[in-house]
Write a structure and sequence with these properties.
The chain is an alpha+beta fold. The chain has three domains: 2-103, Serine Threonine Protein Phosphatase 5, Tetratricopeptide repeat; 114-175; 179-241, SH3 Domains (SH3 type barrels), CATH 2.30.30. Helix content is 59%, strand content 14%. It has nine helices and seven strands. The protein has helices at residues 2-32, 36-49, 54-66, 70-83, 88-100, 110-117, 120-143, 149-172, 174-177; strands at residues 181-184, 190-193, 202-206, 211-218, 221-225, 231-235, 239-241. It has a five-stranded antiparallel β-sheet, with no helix packed on it. Strands 2-3 form a two-stranded antiparallel sheet. α1 runs antiparallel to α2 (36-49), α2 runs antiparallel to α3 and α3 packs antiparallel against α4. The chain is globular. The chain starts with a helix and ends in a 5-residue tail after the last strand.
């Protein structure tokens, strides 16, 4: 019975994979034929039916750009960069989408420069190896007989260096830094207010495509922060998280 269930599950998995491949092929064909809106729907379906990847979000973004949906395109380019921060075509497309939306150029941070130069997976591997090597050397020196100061010091230094690399990964990983980020997709944008009431004082008008950080929620209101550090309230309608909920 168990073997039959395993075979059934395996067959279902491969059938779903083939179906997803057919949808993706159809989406690319529609895109090449200039049927951009239909291609976008099919790219979304392919992302729903299979594990999402940076290339999938990028292709969806291109179809949305071609169909005149720049804000949704920018969202998907950013999602592609969350999965692959070194995906240069997605970064260029996001920059072009922001220009089309009339948004100011985003300020480059030291995290951006680190990600551009060093893959986060390589940093994670190096940090993990150094951390545990340092821990092993330090413990071995601590419990050894005789002179152990130099070996203990070396172990602690290596451990700390590995810990610093892991901290850098944690600070630079967009899956962490953008965990609470969202984008304004409402047509015409939304208002950034001093309190959760539509009659309250307006801090700023947030155009479509604006990126902000959600800090808390009260009913149909979000309390959040803009990239410039200003904090305020805005309606939840049309606010879409950068990282899709699981």
């Amino acid at each position: 019975m168990k073997s039959r269930q395993i075979v059934t599950v395996t067959l279902c998995f491969f059938v779903s994979m083939l179906a997803g491949a057919d949808v993706l092929t159809d989406a690319r064909t529609r895109f090449q034929d200039g049927e951009y809106e239909q291609a976008a729907k099919l790219f979304e379906q392919a992302l729903d039916e299979s594990p999402p990847g940076a290339a999938g979000f990028f292709e969806l973004g291109r179809a949305l750009t071609k169909s005149g949906q720049e804000a949704r395109a920018a969202l998907n380019y950013r999602r592609a960069l969350v999965l692959d921060p070194r995906f240069a075509p997605a970064a260029s497309a996001l920059q072009a989408a922001n220009v089309a939306l009339g948004l100011p150029a985003s300020r480059r941070t030291w995290q951006d420069r680190v990600v551009e130069r060093i893959p986060l997976d390589a940093l994670t591997l190096a940090g993990t190896v150094l951390f545990w090597v340092g821990a092993f050397v330090g413990l071995a020196a601590f419990f050894s007989q005789g002179v152990r100061g130099r070996r203990l010091f070396s172990g602690v230094v290596v451990l700390l260096f590995g810990g610093v690399l892991l901290l850098v990964v944690w600070l630079c990983d967009p899956r962490i830094s953008l965990a609470n980020s969202a984008m304004v997709l409402t047509n015409g944008g939304t208002s950034f207010l001093t309190s959760p009431a539509e009659q309250s004082e307006k801090i700023a008008a947030l155009p479509q495509g604006t990126l902000l950080r959600v800090l808390s929620q009260r009913g149909r209101w979000f309390y959040g922060e803009l990239p410039n550090g200003k904090k305020g309230w805005f309606l939840t309608e049309g606010i879409v998280p950068v990282i899709p909920p699981a």
